[in-house]
Amino acid sequence: MLEHIQDPGNVGAMLRSAAAGGVDTVFLSPGCADVWSPKVLRGGMGAHFVLRLVEKADLSAWVHRLPAKVVATALDAQQSLYDLDLQGAVSFVFGNEGAGLSPELLTHISHRVQIPMPGNMESLNAAAALAVCVFERVRQTVTR
Questions:
Q1: How far apart are CA 12 and CA 142, in angstroms?
Q2: What angle do CA 125, 128, 74 make, to 5 degrees?
Q3: Which pLDDT score, from 0 to 100, does residue 73 have?
Q4: Which of 29, 33, 58, 113 could form a disulfide with 3 if both were Cys (CB 3.0 to 4.6 A apart)?
């Protein structure tokens, strides 16, 4: 779930990482960059053709319909992403590049986690955070 992700490059990269990580559906709130704009299409590199894209989605309404853990990253979260069991249905929620998630959507989050960052950076780019989260789920669920 993407809430108000404004940068087309981020949206494209997020779609590409989601598709590569086995995500089947991406919900985009009103206020997200146009999913069919040339820059998003270039960044997605074909992800549009393997994902179900739900544009202008009311994310607060959708989180109640989905039988899934609803996970968001937060700098002040006490639990590490790597300590959360990501087996079963999971819905990751990512907020606006500057403002984060809206207060309304935050009330529907079942798990707030942090991505450990031992380096001297305050945060990750939204697309990078999505890739880390999706591929941690892949690591936990894919067997060889």
A1: 25
A2: 65
A3: 93
A4: 29
